[in-house]
Amino acid sequence: SVTHTNTMTTTPPNPFAPLLKSLHLDTQSTTNYLKSDDVCNSILHTLKIAFPNAEAELLDSAEVVLKDLSAEQGTLFVQLALAKKTSDAIIQVISTHILNGDLESVPQLNAALDFFVKKKNPTQNYDVASFEENCGVGVKVTNEEIEKAVQDFLAQRKEKLVKDRYLTKVGPLLGQLSSTPRMKWADKKQVKKSLDDALVVLWGPQTEADKKREKDSKKKEKKEKKEKKGVDKPKKEIRISNDFAAREIPDAVNPPHLLQKHKEVTGGKVMTRFPPEPNGFLHIGHAKAINLSFTHAAKQGGHCYLRYDDTNPTKEEDQYFKSIKDMVEWLGFKPWKVTYSSEYFDEMYELAVKLIKKGLAYVDFQDKDTINAQRKESIESPYRNTSVEVNLKRFTDMRDGRYAEGEAVLRCKIDMKSTYFSMRDFIAYRIMYVPHPHIGDKWCIYPTYDYTHCIVDSLENVTHSLCTLEFEVRRDSYYWLLAALDLYRPHVWEFSRLNVSTSLLSKRKINMLVSKKIVRDWNDPRLLTLAGLRRRGYTKDAILNFCAEVGVTRSENLISIQKLESECKKDLDVRANRAFCVLRPLRVVLTNYPEDKVEYVEAPNHPKDESRGSRKLPLSRIVYIDERDFREEDEPSYFGLAPGKTVGLRYGPLIKCVSHKKDDTGKVVELHAEVVPKEDHPKAKYIHWLAQPQPGVDPEKVEARILDYLFKVPEDPKQLAEYLPPREEGDLLKEINPNSEIVYANAFIDPIFKQNPENRKVYTNFQFERVGFFAVDEDTTPEHLVFNLTLSVGGKKKSAAKKSDQKQKKAPTKSKQ
Q1: Which range in 8-12, 156-160, 489-493 is most confidently predicted, on average pLDDT?
Q2: Tens-digit pLDDT profile for residues 511-540
Q3: What is the DSSP letter of 136?
Q4: Which of 55, 72, 132, 277 is labelled catalytic?
Q5: 120's torsion region: left (phi>0), alpha (psi -120 to 50) or beta?
C-alpha cells in the first residue's frame, strides 16, 4: 500500500517585520515596504547610523532599541531612508536632530534635506542657527494663528470663492495655504480642518443649485477629457470655394459599370489621398493640402490615404519617408492606410503592356532633350509608329536591363497636335539602375508621375483627387490614360498653392543650404518646413488655423508671413505658461538685503488663467537683470534702471540703483541697489529678473537662440508681405541674413525648469516675460537646456535679433548637431 502524506509549505517570517513594527508604521505602509528588500535595507542602514551603539541588535531586538521612538519619529526615519542623494554624514546629522526633537514633521525633514543636499551646506561646522531657521526648528504655530492665516488667505480670494462656491477645488487651495512661510510648519490636519470650517461658514450649506452646478461641471470636464483623447481639431473650419467645380473633360465621365464597381468597393464613402514625393521634408504649403484632403474626407465620413509617390529612387531617402509620416501625425491626422506607389509597380507594368497592345504606347530611343524639344514644337517621334510587336519586345528589353540609362523610354501615344503639352506623348517609363528604398532592386524601369498618379488614384478608388493648380494642365492626360485603360476615374480638383512671403519652399534650394551648412538641416527652425516650424515652437493648431483662415481657392496669391505669425501668437498666448529668462545677465547687489536670506515671491504661471496655479521665485541679495534694463543715462521713454532711478522687480519688491561698477573696457558689470517701499513709488515700471536661489549659487544657465528671418527681408510690413527669396542660387546666397540666429550661451532661466522635468521636454512652449515665446529645442540634453525664440512678444521678430552686442555670438556656420 502507498501512504499519501499531505504537506503544507509555510512562508518564513520576514526578518524586517519586527523592525518596521517598532517604527509604529500603519499596516498598509508596513506591508508595502516589506515587499521590497531594497527599501527595508535602506531603512536598516539609516537606523544603524542613527543608533551606532545598537547596530547589531536592530534586527533581533528592534523593539528594545527603538522603544522610546514616537510614531512621528518612526515616519521621519523612513522618509529619511527613502530620500535620494543623501550621504551617511547627512543621515547622521539629520538623525541627531530627529532624536533631539528638533525635526518633528515631514516638511521640517524635507527642509533639512534641502539644506544639506540641494544647498550643499557642509555637515561639519555648519551654521546651526541658519539650519534651524530654514527648518522651522522650535516654531510652534497655534490654532489661533492657523485660523487667522486661513481668514486672511480666504479674504484675498473671496470674490472668486463666492462666485465658484462648491465648484472650488479645495486641494489646490490647501496646497497654496500650506506653502506660505508660517503655515508650512503648522499641523496639516489642523490647517485642513480650519480651512474646511471657514469655507462652510463662507458658503453656507450646499444647496440643490450647488449640486446641479457641480454635476454639470463634472459632465463638462468628462466631455473635454474625452475630446482631448481624440484628434485635436483646429478651431476654424477650412473654407472651400466653388465646391470642387473644375474644367469638364469628356473622358472624365465614368461608364456605369466602372461607377457601380467603385461604389461596391467604397460603400459610397468619400476617399481622398495625400501623395507627397519622399524626396524632402514637408513644408508649410503641404499643410494646406494635408488639411484639405484629411478634413474633407473626415467631414464626409470617408477616409484619406497617406500615399508615398515613390517613383524616383535617385532622390528618395528613408529619412524623408519617416519625416512625412511624422509630420502628418503631428498635425493630428491619422491616415486610413499608408500606401506606396511602388507597391503597384506590377499592376502598372501590366497596364503599360496593355497600352502597347492597343497601339497607345511606344518605345523611343531619343534623348530627353530631343524629346522635350519635339514636344514643344509638336513634332512626332520617328519611333511613334513602330509596330506593336516590336514595341512589346523593346519594352521587355527595357525591363530586363538590355539598355543603358537614358537610352530608351516608353511614351504614351496620344496627340502631338494637342494644345495641352501633357497630351503630347508624355514619357511613361524610364530606365534607372538604382535600387528602390522600399521595394529593393526588383525593377530597373520606373514609371513617371504623369503615368503613375492617375492609375494609383484609380486602383485605390479615390473619389476626390485634390492637387495644386500647376497640375491643371495635366487633367487631359490624366483622364485620357484612365479612359484608354478602362479604369475608374476620380474627380480631380485643383486649388492654389499656399505661397507665404519670406518662405523658401524649393526642395532643391533647401538641400543646397543644408549641404553648404547655412542651415543645420531640413528641420532648421529658420525654415518653413513643418519640422522646422515645430522645432521653432509653432503648434499644429496654429498651423491648421492659419490654413483654415487662408481657405482653399483657385486664385493664386501670396500670403504674408505675418498672418501665420499672428495665428501662432494667438495660440501661444493661451497655451504657453509664463517664466523668466535673463538673456544677458547683469549682476545686481541689493545692499540692504541680508546676505544669507532667501525668501520667495509668488508669480502666476499664466496671468489670464488662475487654474494653472503659480510658481515661487527665490529672492536673495544677488539678483540678475538683463543688460538692456540698465542705462547710465535715463530718458523719459526708458523703463529700465538708471543711476538714482527706481523700478520694480516683477512680482517682487521695488529697487533703487545707487551705484554701478565697470570693467577695464568701460562695460558696466555690476549694480548696487536698495530695496525701497512700494508706497513711495506707486507708478514704478517693472522688469524681469532672477535671483540666486541660495547664497553663492547662480540660477541655471541655458542656451537661448534668438531667431530671425533667414533672408534680409524688408522692414516695412507691406514690403515684407510681398517678399520672396531670389530664384537664382547666387542671388539667394547673397540675401542670407547674417543675424538670422544669435546665440546667448549664458542666459539664466527660471527655477521651474529644474523643479519640473515636464518643462524640459522638447517642443514645450513658454512665454519668457518681456522677451518672447520660446520652445525647448531638440539639442537639449539632461544637463543643457536649449531654447528657440518662436516669436517676440512685441512687434516683429526682427527687433529681437537687432538688439545684439559684443557678448552675442552668431550661429555657427557648422551645425551644432
Answers
A1: 489-493
A2: 999 999 999 999 999 999 999 999 999 999
A3: T
A4: 277
A5: left
Catalytic residue among 188, 261, 507, 563: 507
Task: Say if residue 816's pLDDT is above 90.
Answer: no
Alpha helices, DSSP H, located in 208-276? 208-229, 256-266
Cell of 538: 509653432
* Residue 289, amino acid: A
C-alpha cell read off for 700: 541655471
Per the annotation, the verdict on 727 as an active-site residue is: no
Indicate if the alpha-carbon torsion angle 485, 487, 492, 498 is positive or negative: negative
Quick one: which of 202, 436, 426, 208 has its CA closest to 311? 436
**265 DSSP assignment:** H
Q: Which cell goes with 225? A: 477629457
Name the pTM for this structure: 0.69
Q: Give me the residues paired with residue 653 across strands.
A: none
| Residue pair 456/344 in contact by the 8 Å Cβ criterion | yes
Q: What is the DSSP secondary-structure string of 412-453?
A: E---TT-SSGGGTT-EEEEE----BTTTBTS-SEEE-HHHHH
pLDDT in tens, 702-717: 999 999 999 999 989 8
Q: If we measure between CA atoms, which residue out of 139, 162, 157 comes closest to residue 174?
A: 157
pLDDT digits (tens, 9 = 90+) for 379-390: 999 999 999 999
pLDDT of residue 57: 78
3-class SS at 491?
Answer: strand
User: Across-strand partners of 660?
Assistant: 671
Whole-number pLDDT of residue 11: 52
Q: Quick one: which H or E segment has residue 666? A: none
34 has a pLDDT exceeding 90: no
Q: Is 507 a catalytic residue?
A: yes
Among candidate residues 733, 649, 731, 744, the one with its CA nearest the CA of residue 691: 649
CA atoms within a 13 Å half-sphere pointing along the CA-CB vector of 652: 26
| Backbone Cα Rg of the chain | 36
Task: Extract the C-alpha cell encoding 713.
Answer: 527681408
Q: What contacts 672, CB < 8 A, 6 or more positions away?
A: 588, 589, 591, 657, 658, 659, 660, 661
Rounded distance between C-alpha atoms, residue 129 and residue 121, angstroms: 13
CA 346/CA 115 separation, integer angstroms: 72
Q: Are 361 and 427 in contact (CB under 8 A)?
A: no
The angle formed by the CA atoms of residues 15, 17 and 21, to the nearest 5 degrees, is 145
DSSP string, 147-196: HHHHHHHHHTTHHHHHHHGGGS-HHHHHHHHHTSTTGGGS-HHHHHHHHH
Which whole number is the average pLDDT over 367-371? Answer: 95
- Cell triple for 49: 547610523
Residue 132 annotated in active site = no
Mark 136-164 as b/e (b = at least 16 C-beta within 10 Å).
bbeeebeeeebbebbeebbeeeeeebeee
Q: Which residues of 384-396 are buried (b: 16+ CB within 10 A; e: fewer)?
A: eebeeeebeebbe
Question: How many angstroms separate the CA atoms of 441 and 613, rounded?
Answer: 59
Cell 524632402, located at residue: 280
Residues 6+ positions from 112 with CB-CB distance below 8 Å? 94, 97, 103, 131, 134, 135
CA dihedral 196, 198, 199, 204 (to 10 degrees): 120
CA-wise closest residue to 795 among 715, 719, 740: 715
Cell 538590355 locates to: 402
Q: Would you say 743 and 579 are in contact if contact means Cβ atoms under 8 Å apart?
A: no
Q: β-strands 427-431, 614-619: how paired?
A: unpaired
Range with lowest mean pLDDT among 15-29, 138-152, 411-425: 15-29
Written as one string, the DSSP assignment of 298-353 is HHTT-EEEEEE----TTS--HHHHHHHHHHHHHTT---SEEEEGGGGHHHHHHHHH
**pLDDT of 672 above 70:** yes
Q: How far is 549 from 552, CA to CA, in rounded Å?
A: 9
Cell of 441: 532592386
User: Mean pLDDT across the chain, nearest whole number?
Assistant: 89
Query: Could you tell me the three cell numbers for 776?
Result: 525647448
The alpha carbon of 231 is separated from its chain's Cα centroid by a whole number of angstroms, namely 16
